[in-house]
Write a structure and sequence with these properties.
This protein has helices at about 25-30, 50-55, 70-80, 95-105, 120-125, 125-130, 145-150, 170-180, 190-205, 215-225, 240-245; strands at about 10-15, 35, 40-45, 60-65, 90-95, 110, 135-140, 155-165, 185-190, 210-215. The chain is an alpha/beta fold and about 250 residues long.
Length: about 250
């Protein structure tokens, strides 16, 4: 029976935005207990120039999305100003399966995804297929790093369409969960969530109280900067891949 329920006895803390809740049923089906405790949330950034910026977006050779949050905010603007994917002649570049799925659900066809879902790999692989002196627009969040702008060998325009807000309302619940459960894994999907956890949770319980899982080597690096040991970091940067790795590990002593 244990083999049928490889997550039996394990508690999995999900610290990303509320969009990460899709994995909850999978965790439960494997015998685990998922706790949704978002340490960050995102919201669309509204601007008086949105209509003009959206119209300008129609003119680019490439539009680049690196997160599902960016797609969702962009979709809100498209709906508000009555545009659809059919209005865009641009090629679409995407990082991540969730991002790509969200784009495809809007009717976009994704022309490029990097072999590893990370911005620093994107800047190495994208130029070879982007064409000669392409005009590129990066649809970003306010906390996006300058990796694309600094790393691409051609001019990149940026449009910030969403903001990331820290949530402190979940920290007490997280601390209590860690204190009352023996085998806890905390999954981090972004450096932003790591920052909140480090400031509001780790200072009370330490990093050794749980198993630590990271999605992406950028998130892994953020954890290590705070002194955490990353126990799980799959080569495929998805939540599902983390769960698959967690299924292989024994109980946390």
């Amino acid at each position: 029976m244990q083999n049928d329920l490889p997550l039996r006895g394990k508690t999995v803390l999900l610290t990303g935005t509320s969009k990460t809740t899709a994995i909850v049923d999978d965790i439960a089906a494997l015998g685990g207990h998922a706790v949704i405790a978002p340490l960050i949330e995102t919201c669309e950034r509204m601007d008086n120039d949105d209509a003009k910026l959206l119209n300008s977006a129609l003119q680019f050779d490439w539009i680049i999305f690196t997160s599902q949050n960016a797609v969702d905010a962009f979709a809100n603007k498209m709906e508000r100003y009555q545009l659809s994917a059919e209005n865009f002649q641009s090629k679409i570049a995407s990082i991540g399966t969730k991002t790509t799925t969200a784009l495809e659900n809007l009717g976009f066809q994704v022309s490029f995804m990097p072999s590893i879902f990370s911005a620093d790999i994107f800047v190495k692989e994208f130029p070879s297929i982007a064409g000669d002196h392409p005009s590129c627009l990066f649809i970003r969040g306010e906390k996006a790093k300058s990796t694309l702008k600094d790393g691409l060998p051609f001019n990149l325009k940026e449009w910030t369409v969403y903001e990331t807000v820290e949530r402190q309302d979940q920290t007490t619940a997280i601390i209590n969960c860690i204190h009352h459960n023996e085998d806890v894994t905390v999954i981090f999907a972004s450096p932003s969530a790591v920052d909140v956890y480090a400031k509001s949770v780790a200072v009370h319980v330490g990093w050794q109280a749980t198993r630590v899982a990271a999605i992406g080597h950028i998130t892994e690096a953020a954890l290590e900067q705070y002194g955490a040991t990353v126990d799980i970091m799959p080569s495929v940067y998805t939540m599902q891949a983390v769960i698959e790795e967690l299924m292989k590990v024994g109980d946390k002593s």
